[in-house]
Amino acid sequence: MSNRTMARQVLLFIWFLSLSSALGQVSYSIPEEMAKGSLVGNIAQDLGLDLKRLKSGKARIYTGDSAEYIELNKERGVLLIKERIDREALCGQTTPCALHFQIILENPMEFFSVTIEITDINDNTPSFKKSMIVFRISEAPAIDLDVGINGLQSYKLKSTDNFNLKFKNQPGDGKNVEMVLKKPLDREKQHDIKLVLTAIDGGDLQLSGSIEIHITVLDVNDNAPVFLQSVYKATVTENAPKYTVVSTVSATDPDEGINSKIVYSIANMHDDDQQLFGINQDTGQVTVVGIIDFENARNYEISVQASDHGGLTDSCKIIVDVIDINDNKPVINIMSKTNVIAENSASETVVTMINVQDHDSGENGEVHCSINENIPFTLRSTNANFFSLVTDGDLDRERESEYNISVTCADEGVPSLSSSVTLSLQISDVNDNAPVFDKSSYEASVQENNTPGLSIFTVRARDADFNQNARVSYILEDSSVNGVDHGGFTDSCKIIVDAIDINDNKPVINIMSKTNVIAENSASETVVTMINVQDLDSGENGKVKCSVNENIPFTLRSTNANFFSLVTDGDLDRERESEYNISVTCADEGVPSLSSSVTLSLQISDVNDNAPVFDKSSYEASVQENNTPGLSIFTVRARDADFNQNARVSYILEDSSVNGVPVSSLVSVSADSGVIHAVRSFDYEQIKDFQFRVKAQDGGSPPLSSNVSVKIMIQDQNDNAPQVLYPVQSGASVVAEIVPRSADVGYLVTKVVAVDVDSGQNAWLSYKLQKATDRALFEVGLQNGEIRTVRQVTDKDAVKQRLTVVVEDNGQPSRSATVNVNVAVADSFPEVLSEFTDFTHDKDYNDNLTFYLVLALAVVSFLFIVSIIAILSVKCYRWRRERMFYKSGANLPVIPYYPPLYADVGGTGTLQHVYNYEVCRTTDSRKSDLKYGRPCMRNFSFADHGPEMQRSGHFPRVF
């Protein structure tokens, strides 16, 4: 516990000094630092109390929420030191320093106030906060201004208030004059001195010369800072936020320069308080740096020191008053607590004592208390902030045995703060009620043949009291019973007992005919068995009625006196209930009624009235292509609710065909298990899915059946490698693409066209350049297979370029195809021919190369001439036809042109659905054209083939 906290706890009780207790007050004075167990005073003697009263009243010390330094010895009636008491730690500088507590006694409730003054002893030596203090004092420098001129006789100094002249003879009749400081200089009064020194020679006609002397007085730190005020007063609200400005102090120093610079600091302040305030050493602004609590201290004295850089200081005092805010709820302390009070307690009986503390001040600390309404209790104010809870009406345990009394205390602050506690008070019983019987008279009957000691009936009297007071004893006297409680209160009642005949024979049930099995298709009212019932009693005791358990399709029919037939009373369904345990109960009409029961176990035999039912309305399964014949694909399952042979299900594959092929050649079904097997290996490219029906038939007579549709989907495998459509690979000729040397970056050389007959991911193709004569010149589009130039073609590039492109699908594992593309980098056809003569060909072809070249030139020349003639002939022919057409008006039919067509009929390949192209080439020529036509579908968009392809649609080819 900190010194500040202990001091606060003591200050909380200072207001007790002006109070008198409910019954008395005692004061003691003891020195601090007394040993534990030391005697403080004889409290029993001083209060005039007997030692027995201390014990019977459970005397105890109440200190609220502060520490207990004093203890009560009830055996001796004295107060003793319980804990070490340090006045400096307990009260600090507060005088007088005192402990305040109450001594509480119960039965009846009393309390006494005790004050113990703690006197100071000399147990602390003087101490400095610092082990060493250093002061810096500057020394004023001596002023020595020597002036001398050889041959001079005398000097005169004008304005000699501060200086005198001192003459000294020098060797050689010389004179030296010195200016000597006559009295101390004060820079703050005069910082600049002007003098005139006149030198006079010794001639007849005296001549003189003058010199003006300017003296600047240097500052020394001879002035201490001086505060504008010796005492500052300020206020601060408790719980003020950090860096709230408390006050600003100011000091002045008439020195100049570094000697006038002032530094402010807080000095000689308590360690705890030093954590609450801070000061700006340059501006003197004092601010809050900790948490200000009015309940810890209501004011603070802050000593502020102003120091210049020469070590001179001045100090002032700031008195800070803390303004209280309502930040503490009232604290309710139950000083003495009684859990039980007798119901016959008189009004104003003290139940408990309550002390309320509010650490705030003024109206914030003024407290008023109240309790819940409509209870026979009230609060009486016995002293300032002391209340006694007393009875305020009659108590009746039989009406209310317990009270939960809520005590609420609120202060007068704005906004008001409040606290509540709840006391649970039991009302102890007093024997103030007599027993009362439930009835004034009782009538009962006893059956014949009773056993001795038989309990006939019970009389009951109730006592509204509690526990021992409510215990009732019963005494039988003649024809009445008296009820007596332990307090001597009594009540009585009459008893009338009648003897009657008893029904002491149960009905006897005889099963005359018994059938254990009945078919589930039995008609209603079918007799199951006959029952005869006998009861040896007579009258009402011998009359019998029978019944069977409910919610079963059976009932009892009365055929004669005490004869019954058990018949069906509804439809039987073995699948819903295969067995019935029929309980037949027969009871007579005696009081009490006697009954007997028998249970018939009846089995329901099965009839084939349920067809098999498949688990699903349809089945779908998948199997990968290239499967092994006999592979188990999946299982169909049907269930039959019937029993035994009627529930035995067989599976049959219904006859059907798939694309003209019997379904039995594709799959088979196991008759017993319903497992469907593949009869052969499937090929996704031939058949993608097929459907058939499976029939489930039971073993009944006649048999019942049902069928279900089954769909098998073939899953594609990557079992087909990509096929290259273009360029066409031919071993008999060499095909080359011509690239002009003027081709720019991105020039479209050609496009590799490939397809994969697989589907989905297995048909996704990617193109990669595997090898090339110059890899830095060409690249292949990963997705579209376009071969383009990577850089500008130069004259240094070889004419003959050979590219190897790999086409790879996306299957797992992937498959690929390789195509070789020959590229000629040339601007003229002869250059191509000269370079491509060394391409590798068959041996026979190379041997006849010259022959073919000559033959080709001749054929080309011939064809050129023929073409010229043919063109001229056609022109003339068309001219004549047009003239005839206009003359006759006849319209000649137009024969359309249908180019070759390639289509991906599967719809899963890499080409567009419809794509046509036309190839014009000779058998072994060096040049041909590949012409791409337009798509046959409107929504077909051809891939981007570069500007040249888009412009003409033709690609030059060299063979």
From TrEMBL:
<feature type="signal peptide">
    <location>
        <begin position="1"/>
        <end position="22"/>
    </location>
</feature>
<dbReference type="InterPro" id="IPR050174">
    <property type="entry name" value="Protocadherin/Cadherin-CA"/>
</dbReference>
<feature type="domain" description="Cadherin">
    <location>
        <begin position="438"/>
        <end position="490"/>
    </location>
</feature>
<keyword id="KW-0130">Cell adhesion</keyword>
<feature type="domain" description="Cadherin">
    <location>
        <begin position="510"/>
        <end position="614"/>
    </location>
</feature>
<dbReference type="InterPro" id="IPR032455">
    <property type="entry name" value="Cadherin_C"/>
</dbReference>
<dbReference type="InterPro" id="IPR015919">
    <property type="entry name" value="Cadherin-like_sf"/>
</dbReference>
<dbReference type="InterPro" id="IPR020894">
    <property type="entry name" value="Cadherin_CS"/>
</dbReference>
<feature type="domain" description="Cadherin">
    <location>
        <begin position="142"/>
        <end position="227"/>
    </location>
</feature>
<keyword id="KW-1003">Cell membrane</keyword>
<feature type="transmembrane region" description="Helical">
    <location>
        <begin position="849"/>
        <end position="874"/>
    </location>
</feature>
<keyword id="KW-1133">Transmembrane helix</keyword>
<dbReference type="InterPro" id="IPR002126">
    <property type="entry name" value="Cadherin-like_dom"/>
</dbReference>
<feature type="domain" description="Cadherin">
    <location>
        <begin position="333"/>
        <end position="437"/>
    </location>
</feature>
<dbReference type="GO" id="GO:0005509">
    <property type="term" value="F:calcium ion binding"/>
</dbReference>
<dbReference type="Pfam" id="PF08266">
    <property type="entry name" value="Cadherin_2"/>
</dbReference>
<keyword id="KW-0472">Membrane</keyword>
<dbReference type="Pfam" id="PF16492">
    <property type="entry name" value="Cadherin_C_2"/>
</dbReference>
<dbReference type="InterPro" id="IPR013164">
    <property type="entry name" value="Cadherin_N"/>
</dbReference>
<feature type="domain" description="Cadherin">
    <location>
        <begin position="615"/>
        <end position="724"/>
    </location>
</feature>
<protein>
    <recommendedName>
        <fullName>Cadherin domain-containing protein</fullName>
    </recommendedName>
</protein>
<keyword id="KW-0677">Repeat</keyword>
<keyword id="KW-0106">Calcium</keyword>
<feature type="domain" description="Cadherin">
    <location>
        <begin position="739"/>
        <end position="836"/>
    </location>
</feature>
<keyword id="KW-0812">Transmembrane</keyword>
<feature type="domain" description="Cadherin">
    <location>
        <begin position="228"/>
        <end position="332"/>
    </location>
</feature>
<feature type="domain" description="Cadherin">
    <location>
        <begin position="29"/>
        <end position="128"/>
    </location>
</feature>
<dbReference type="GO" id="GO:0009653">
    <property type="term" value="P:anatomical structure morphogenesis"/>
</dbReference>
<keyword id="KW-0732">Signal</keyword>
<dbReference type="GO" id="GO:0007156">
    <property type="term" value="P:homophilic cell adhesion via plasma membrane adhesion molecules"/>
</dbReference>
<comment type="function">
    <text>Potential calcium-dependent cell-adhesion protein. May be involved in the establishment and maintenance of specific neuronal connections in the brain.</text>
</comment>
<dbReference type="Pfam" id="PF00028">
    <property type="entry name" value="Cadherin"/>
</dbReference>
<dbReference type="GO" id="GO:0005886">
    <property type="term" value="C:plasma membrane"/>
</dbReference>
<keyword id="KW-0325">Glycoprotein</keyword>
